[in-house]
Amino acid sequence: MKLSARNILTGTVVEVVRGATTAHVKLDVDGTIITSSITNEAADDLALEVGQQAHAVVKASDVLIAVD
Hints:
Layout: E1 7-18, E2 22-29, E3 32-39, H1 40-46, E4 53-58
Antiparallel strand pairs: 1-2, 1-4, 2-3
C-alpha cells in the first residue's frame, strides 16, 4: 500500500480502550506514547492487540499550539 502521508511512525500497541463507539489506541514509538481515537469497528477490522506492531500515519495541514 502506498500513502500520500509522509509522517509514518512505527511502534507497538500498548493499550486499546474501547468506549461506546470509539477506541483509544496507544502506540509506543521509541518511548513516546501516541494516542489515536478510532471507531470500534476500525479497531475490530485491524484486529488490534497489545504487543502488536502498528503504524501511526499522520496527515495534517495545520498543527495548533496554545498556552494560557
